Amino acid sequence: MPTYAYACKDCGHAFDIQQSFADDSLTVCPECGGNLRKKFNSVGVVFKGSGFYRTDSRDAASTVPATPAKDSPAKAGAPEKSPAAPAPAPAASSSAPAAG
Questions:
Q1: Tally of CB atoms within 10 A around 36
Q2: Nearest-angstrom CA–CA distance, 6 and 35
Q3: Which of 5, 12, 43, 57 has its CA 20 to 30 A from that of 28?
């Protein structure tokens, strides 16, 4: 259950209490019977950045294609593959019979 902080507007008494999300906020000070206000603290976790998943909504200008680094292999332990050499073109042979 979350912990909420309250402070009395009249006497200044401050306290914390654990309440369920479904519970109503407290309105009466337990010390003097005055009006309470809920105090809000800073957020514990802040996410910064343009997005965390490729499916997030973002404009096309901010998208950067994911490419592996040139100096590291794509898969750990896998040998790097050199670019494939083009296959030699079949040589035209003068001894081949002409199809007719």
A1: 19
A2: 10
A3: 43
